Amino acid sequence: MCDQDHFEEDRVEYEAGGQVTRRQFGALLGAGMVMMLPKVANAVAVTESEVTVMTPDGTADCYFVHPSTGTAPGVLVWPDIFGLRPSFRQMGKRLAETGYSVLVVNPFYRVKKAPTADAGAATPIPQLMPLAQALNETTHMADAKAFIGWLDKQTSVAKNRKIGTQGYCMGGPIAFRTAAAMPDRVGAVASFHGGGLVTDMPNSPHLQAARTKAQLLIAIAANDDMRAPNDKNVLKETFAKVNLPAEIEVYAGAAHGWCPPDSGVYNEPQAEKAWARLLVLYGKALA
User: Fold this and answer.
1) Rounded to whole angstroms, how far apart are CA atoms 144 and 16?
2) What would the pLDDT profile of 169-217 be if each residue is shown by its tens digit?
3) Is the Cα dihedral 269, 275, 276, 281 positive or negative?
């Protein structure tokens, strides 16, 4: 599970640094606004749509965006605890503009359609915990198979190229398990400020990811590393033992949740660094 208990204190720290005032924070997030991400150089034209995907447990509402012509590698995006919302649509569209067919999912579709956080990223975490706690290893893997199966039926998805998956916060371990559920299909996994990647259980996401063939990018928030300083070492040792390529880095000065542009702790320089490393990963693993 994502370490969201600390999200509010991270926001306070962010405000104290003078990067955003409480009024700005409320106006930006409470109104559902998002900061604009930097434009993609040489962006390709894309087609976007709201879609539904049948899963063993019902119908999932998702956002699908892909280059308007030709085929491109598929990418499955797992949002953070605040769910499918404008900022993740913007992030998915930006990725599609670089040449990928991107499905951004509503992980909480079993309970409600998006938006699942009434005030976006300003929604109090306790209101959202029941949604997150209703998900588990079984739902993660069942959904991964359904979503990748749906992607593979789309004419815009290149069937001869591996699929990538990326997760934020609670989506980090889900991305790991996506690779475990579809080891022959998933070629790249990225986790950004993922929570619960390493546990002491035999079904820990990091152990499941180690049994795959995927290349990995694991971007860790500085304050998450302070709370669990040995996790990065466990990740490095685990993946090294099985010769699995893994870039694992603690992002200095980045607080948990720093990547989505509507986050109260959004850190553009470090988010752009993570974005650049994601493109490098996909460029190698999905080529």
Assistant:
1) 39
2) 999 999 999 999 999 999 999 999 999 999 999 999 999 999 999 999 9
3) positive
Question: Biggest alpha carbon distance in the chain?
Answer: 49
**Cα three-residue angle 175-181-182, rounded to 5 degrees:** 95
Other CB atoms within a 10 A radius of the CB of residue 5 amount to 13
Strand partners, 217: 190, 247
pTM above 0.85, yes or no: yes
Q: Which two tokens stand for residue 243?
A: 């010769």
User: Does 115 sit behind a cis peptide bond, omega within 30 degrees of 0 on the bond before it?
Assistant: yes
pLDDT of residue 34: 56
Tell me the β-bridge partners of 219: 192, 249
What token pair was written down for 19?
């990067």
**Residues 255, 267 contacting (CB under 8 angstroms):** yes
HEC string of 188-214 equals: EEEEECCCCCCCCCCCCHHHHHCCCCC
Q: Which long-range contacts (CB under 8 A, 24 or more apart) does 264-269 make?
A: 264/7, 264/10, 264/11, 264/14, 264/20, 264/25, 264/29, 264/121, 264/122, 265/7, 265/10, 265/11, 265/13, 265/14, 266/35, 268/35
